[in-house]
Amino acid sequence: MRILLVNPNMTEEVTTLMWQTGRAAASPEVELTAVTARRGLPYISSRAEAQIGGVVALEMLADAGSDYDAAILAAFGDPGLLGARELFDFPIVGVSEAAMLTACMLGGRFLIVTFTAAMCGWYRDCVTMHGLDSRCAGVVALDRPIGPLHEVRERHGDALIELAARESRKRDAAAVILAGAPLSGLAERVREALSAPVVDPIVAAVKQAEALATLRPKKASQGSFRRPASKSSVGLYAPLAAILRGGHDG
Amino acid sequence: MRILLVNPNMTEEVTTLMWQTGRAAASPEVELTAVTARRGLPYISSRAEAQIGGVVALEMLADAGSDYDAAILAAFGDPGLLGARELFDFPIVGVSEAAMLTACMLGGRFLIVTFTAAMCGWYRDCVTMHGLDSRCAGVVALDRPIGPLHEVRERHGDALIELAARESRKRDAAAVILAGAPLSGLAERVREALSAPVVDPIVAAVKQAEALATLRPKKASQGSFRRPASKSSVGLYAPLAAILRGGHDG
Amino acid sequence: MRILLVNPNMTEEVTTLMWQTGRAAASPEVELTAVTARRGLPYISSRAEAQIGGVVALEMLADAGSDYDAAILAAFGDPGLLGARELFDFPIVGVSEAAMLTACMLGGRFLIVTFTAAMCGWYRDCVTMHGLDSRCAGVVALDRPIGPLHEVRERHGDALIELAARESRKRDAAAVILAGAPLSGLAERVREALSAPVVDPIVAAVKQAEALATLRPKKASQGSFRRPASKSSVGLYAPLAAILRGGHDG
Amino acid sequence: MRILLVNPNMTEEVTTLMWQTGRAAASPEVELTAVTARRGLPYISSRAEAQIGGVVALEMLADAGSDYDAAILAAFGDPGLLGARELFDFPIVGVSEAAMLTACMLGGRFLIVTFTAAMCGWYRDCVTMHGLDSRCAGVVALDRPIGPLHEVRERHGDALIELAARESRKRDAAAVILAGAPLSGLAERVREALSAPVVDPIVAAVKQAEALATLRPKKASQGSFRRPASKSSVGLYAPLAAILRGGHDG
Amino acid sequence: MRILLVNPNMTEEVTTLMWQTGRAAASPEVELTAVTARRGLPYISSRAEAQIGGVVALEMLADAGSDYDAAILAAFGDPGLLGARELFDFPIVGVSEAAMLTACMLGGRFLIVTFTAAMCGWYRDCVTMHGLDSRCAGVVALDRPIGPLHEVRERHGDALIELAARESRKRDAAAVILAGAPLSGLAERVREALSAPVVDPIVAAVKQAEALATLRPKKASQGSFRRPASKSSVGLYAPLAAILRGGHDG
Amino acid sequence: MRILLVNPNMTEEVTTLMWQTGRAAASPEVELTAVTARRGLPYISSRAEAQIGGVVALEMLADAGSDYDAAILAAFGDPGLLGARELFDFPIVGVSEAAMLTACMLGGRFLIVTFTAAMCGWYRDCVTMHGLDSRCAGVVALDRPIGPLHEVRERHGDALIELAARESRKRDAAAVILAGAPLSGLAERVREALSAPVVDPIVAAVKQAEALATLRPKKASQGSFRRPASKSSVGLYAPLAAILRGGHDG
Lengths: 250, 250, 250, 250, 250, 250
Known about the structure:
6 copies of one chain form a homohexamer.
Chain A: E1 2-7, H1 12-25, E2 31-36, H2 47-64, E3 70-73, H3 81-87, E4 92-94, H4 95-104, E5 110-114, H5 120-129, E6 136-141, H6 152-170, E7 175-178, H7 186-190, E8 198-199, H8 201-215, H9 238-245
Parallel strand pairs in A: 1-2, 1-3, 3-4, 5-6, 5-7, 7-8
């Protein structure tokens, strides 16, 4: 079973972090490949950047070929997810989608905890996009400068635990999602410190990708998620343009 | 990884069908054990029967011991699920919950198709219980006598395919869930006949159980999903009574 | 007019309390009979216990015969209510349902106040089950050990009043529901201390049972609330098994 | 127990019809008084007319004095209900509110059936105003000229039954509400012809008024449903102006 | 382009304030006419008063003739708006509707800030009436005596700014609406003091009226917003009675 | 007042059509400038294409400079809208957002009518993104090959009218939105043929842009819609990269 982890951000260290977390969670039969964006932004943290990062993700998926059983879109907020789901034949799961759906199985409502308030609005949009508002107890964040991404776990780990503990208790959250790629792997450490279960989005995404790969869902040939009709384009990344040209005859 | 499949119905043939479907979908490292109810009803098909079947499920889980990494509650409608989630330390997933959450990853809205209209209302309640109304394109059923349960797939397979095809097109459903244990395994056959992807609830449930087992969620020690306070009881199945007595000190 | 009050808990003192409160509210022509569970739990306070208590309620209703014009399911959270509504020919109302619907007629949103935080999650589930989330200003509870059930009113009455006063003001609640059978009758005492009207669930339930008895609703012979099809069963309480066997021919 | 039925329409025959239906449903201890509007419209059937009829209702309530234990606002759509609930010390229930809340206790979703399509939009607004959209299976109407109001039951009774039967089956409605004052009393006749239970709004309203009268809810002295602050006015009906002037000191 | 601003309150100073604010925002080609109620209340601040004020608004619109391209219903809470939309051929916009829809275009959720807590419940009803609950971050108010209406801006301006600043930050509101006619024009002053954009309802309403006037929407001749059928009436303001009599033949 | 109309599609004829429709609706003082995408797709008709088109829109806005008082994002579905709202200092409105918000002011629920079923799912996503599901009576489309875009109005006008007439009547829609840039200007012709009012998205967008330009909303300096923090990037269109680099210091 071959699973592709697409990091639409350009920070290699974060890809490595995600690959390590994902690899540890994957079944033995899974071959997990991770790719990092070669253009775009170091880290997506706004709606505008997600618009761009979503296209970068489509480009990376177009590059990937069709040798994968499933792909993971590895940026919280799921930039480009719905479009990717139209274009490609293999199933694709977003890390925030995977985290939220997995958290739903722990009962009641989940709390999303992240490291910078700038992302709260965009993350709330993502909850709404997935129709999960009634399962979400809120999106909360630290309110402080964060420093380098790959040090977020070390520098702010304790403050995140305290925030998660306080808010999950206050809101009766049945599960906590640690959101944002730089927090990958933190869930394990937080485990003992919190009295609610914690979901690591990358762990969730790898297992959901396995689920989809096993299900082998047929590509829709009707409705609004089938391949779009063939389109010519100008000035797009060539492999993506080829995918768009390869759509159905409408 | 040890996963327990709990069939709160008494029909062994259906348990076998589910075990076979589940076994084929499970990762190699999974040991899948299936148990059939020894009291209760041959098949749950109403809210009243689900009330009873939910207690039977709790009894079966109390019997199971703590050697499992995750359990599957294998009756569509998820009878007893939320209560089980309070009482037991290992994670538990319901088949309808698993099917719906998995279907969400195929985009847009899912259609639930079942074999008898008697279950539509109860299944709609289940969609609401999981907060997924906005992701559900409807619950539809055949309107005819169904005969023996283990023959449902053979006798009514074609009619179910036709129903699923017509309604999924009409409602622009991005995925179809074939609901009801007697339909286990039918998804594979339906695959070629439909132009939307199909979700087999047992396949979904096995993979979601694997996801939860890998996540190893900590048992909540706060909030409304922690173990209830210790309770004495009268006239309950002894292993279940023991579980209830073993709750926290409040 | 004969109304049956079913307490699916085993604490006789609480049944007595509810009967007294209900009797004082009933119309002169009402004959109010109260029965207490002979198996199960002293007091239901979790989803798991409600699963069990709901079956006990079905058993008690099966015992009751058909001489009643309406029945009250007298445990907040309404365990077994929807199933009971399928099985029996006389109308049945739950105390939480009755309290919430009655509170709706006082305008705006109601606040649910109870004596232990353990029940908040389950009560919120109940609000959702009845589709009344938009009418509910919240579920709040004391956060302290409660001691014996029949002393809750005396020991914690003042703290409950203070909690209700503070939260109803803060949330602009148009009515307060004092939830939990041990609080029956407290509403009268709270009356002068609060500036919002208070709903006693037992008073509400008796009046709603009268409403249903007067309406004499025809038992549904179509749709998902008609009697389920005839079912054989194993190991169930005999009178309940007889009811299940007596369903329609499907 | 004194209950006032306020018909904000000017058609005496309809008041009589409602009084008769209500009287038959009321408890023996109830004294039911009905009043008919002396200004306004023969029958409210639009939002604009409801705006006017709502003021007429306030005027009639201002005329009524304070000798009542509860009042019924007897026009489907509940014109003026929320305002009345602020101004007056006794509890007030609307017939559509009463019908819908009572129907909720019959399970699942209710269907509203009326005799002219002109009212469907306004009635849907009323469902939304009460926060009951998720409990409503739809609002349906005959599409034909109706003739004199007091003959609606005779002329169109059969067509209404056919419509209610067809749509309630199609939408799996657990109950049918016959909406519109001219249909008062029709529920009894429809009873045998439908396979779902039927709610007569006047019967429901009388019983809900009894429920409120028994509850004796304290008039809110906080929040948005307390008496508005004292106001002078110009050109209003004198007894209503006096009520407005008699508000609190703010 | 002729636009009519209807103030259903009797306070001329407030009409003047609104006219000045509106005139400054209107396009050069707009002729803005403002009228003040000659009966009713000095200022609407409850649901009951809105019931009355809504009829006064219908009377004022009936007086206005048909020489207008659009009308503004200039009382926050939009009393009488939906009825007016049925009766009159020119388009009509409410100030709260205009403010909320305009605020939606600034992203995310808007916060409604007003000067007295008495109006919060009624304003929340208005948000619900327009189906905008998911776009509203809350309705907040000062909690103090307000004094004369035309001095509200001066006396309480600073406190309102502080309230708006604190609550908009806390709730991540993307826009602030200053609600209530006496606050007209305050937005300009608040502008520099807040870090979120501010919507003046009168400015929004004038521009929305221009939008509707330009669109020249055809008066509906089908459905629930067409003119109601012709009705005779008793005791209504003559020009309004004439409008009601002039409806279609139904 | 300078308004920029951004067509993120590459079809000049459609830009011309929109400019003409918009110019006719604009106030005299408005200078309306329209630009056409120089890269991307001839016409956006799927979620994937909207992901790309949204970035093209951001690029075009980055090119535009800051001399505009407001901008219109002129592709139904509003690709890139929320991101644009973060990045730029002038207000931006989407054509679908403008059409829907304007339609809300015509009462009740609007119907969206378009020319190809492929867009229905994406357009429904857009309704949800704006929180307007409860105001939308549905999204309907012709089900046939459409031919060249600039001939859609001529070839399919009659079929679209028939579809709009049938579905608006059936669903009691208070307004009809003709969605999709190639339908610009069709509303005027449809006007006489339909019995519900029709909204042309370009007309609506121009007037909403005027409303925003008049409001001159302050750029948020707090919360999730302020300018994102300064970011370096690789391989992006230089003017867009400059905008991203120019963000705040975080």
